[in-house]
């Protein structure tokens, strides 16, 4: 059940899109929604003396709070300010705050625009919060009614976490596709059929596909498959201890976070 949600807020142009998705999820599940404002800022300096917060941070925070309160009127909602502006503070405090929620909604980093947060923030929240993170791409229009999920499966602890964390989001889907990668086709088929049985116990219709992995383009194959399937959300584990290329420790997750084109639910 999703009863306590967190959405990250900043001045970025995509903040409204992920807030709208967070609000929709909160309405679907009757959940509390907390908007956590946090973005880069430098302390104001007068000579050798620094003061915090600077005026531009206060203005941005006030605007964020007003926008959040207007958008969430009538909901069980709360706005919180991290009130820190350094990269190190954001990377420490936002994942820490995220540990107290059922689901975190964040945005993909976009290199082409001014960055209000460190590029590695979504990854840090996935790794260090211990909570599932729904990451929304920096381009495109998306919604919170996920009808065609693609579940990336490699029979790892992280995959199991992601699968079960995603259940409340995909409960009313039309059909889930379970895509299993392994070095042996029979093992891939066996494990994805186990996933299908698990989904069936939750009244989720699914079909399975199995693929043999090699060392070339696994992540691109996964994203291409999502496109071919018409998937509207990708469910995957992050930082597997298994040495499989598409979820190798760090590399696969970072690559997906750079090139993702659909919402991704990640758990570690």
How are the elements arranged and paired?
Blueprint lengths: L3 E6 L5 H15 L2 E6 L6 E3 L2 E3 L3 H17 L5 E5 L5 H12 L4 E5 L13 H9 L3 E4 L12 E5 L3 H14 L5 E7 L2 H17 L4 E7 L5 H12 L3 E5 L13 H9 L4 E4 L1
Parallel strand pairs: 1-2, 1-6, 2-5, 6-7, 8-9, 8-11, 9-10, 11-12
Antiparallel strand pairs: 3-4, 7-12
Describe the structure.
The protein folds into two domains: about 5-135, 3-Layer(aba) Sandwich (Rossmann fold), CATH 3.40.50.620; about 150-265, 3-Layer(aba) Sandwich (Rossmann fold). A hairpin with a 2-residue loop joins strand 3 (about 45) and strand 4 (about 50). It is built from eight helices and twelve strands. The chain is of the alpha/beta class and about 270 residues long. The longest helix has 17 residues, at about 55-70.
Nearest-integer average pLDDT: 92
| Relative helix content | 25-40%
Shape call: globular
Secondary structural class: alpha/beta
Number of domains: 2
State the distance separating the first and last CA atoms.
Answer: 19 Å
Task: State the low-pLDDT regions, or none.
Answer: 240-249
- The CATH class of the largest domain turns out to be Alpha Beta
Q: Strand order within the widest sheet?
A: 5-2-1-6-7-12-11-8-9-10
Beta-strand percentage? 15-25%
State the CATH topology of the largest domain. Rossmann fold
Give the helix tally: 8
CATH superfamily label of the largest domain: HUPs
- Give the name of the CATH architecture of the largest domain: 3-Layer(aba) Sandwich
Cα Rg = 19 Å
* Largest pleated sheet: 10 strands, mixed
Oligomer: single chain
């Amino acid at each position: 059940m999703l009863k306590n949600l967190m959405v990250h807020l900043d001045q970025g142009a995509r903040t409204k899109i992920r807030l709208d998705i967070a609000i929709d999820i909160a309405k679907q599940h009757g959940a509390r929604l907390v908007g956590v404002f946090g973005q880069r800022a430098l302390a104001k300096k007068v000579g050798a003396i620094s003061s915090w917060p600077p005026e531009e941070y206060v203005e941005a925070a006030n605007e964020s709070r007003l926008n959040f309160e207007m958008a969430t009127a009538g909901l069980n909602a709360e706005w919180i300010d991290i009130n820190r502006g350094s990269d190190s503070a954001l990377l420490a405090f936002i994942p820490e705050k995220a540990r107290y929620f059922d689901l975190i909604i964040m945005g993909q980093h976009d290199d082409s625009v001014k960055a209000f947060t460190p590029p590695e923030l979504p990854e840090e929240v996935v790794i260090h919060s211990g909570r599932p993170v729904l990451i929304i791409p920096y381009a495109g229009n998306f919604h919170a009614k996920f009808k065609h999920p693609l579940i990336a499966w490699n029979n790892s602890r992280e995959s199991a976490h992601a699968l079960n964390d995603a259940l409340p989001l995909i409960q009313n889907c039309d059909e889930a596709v379970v895509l299993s990668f392994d070095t042996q086709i029979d093992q891939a088929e066996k494990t994805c059929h186990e996933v299908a049985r698990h989904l069936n116990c939750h009244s989720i219709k699914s079909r399975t596909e199995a693929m043999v992995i090699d060392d070339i383009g696994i992540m691109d194959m996964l994203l291409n498959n999502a496109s071919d399937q018409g998937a509207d959300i990708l469910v995957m584990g992050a930082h597997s201890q298994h040495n499989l290329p598409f979820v190798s420790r760090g590399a696969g997750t970072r690559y997906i976070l750079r090139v993702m084109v659909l919402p991704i639910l990640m758990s570690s």
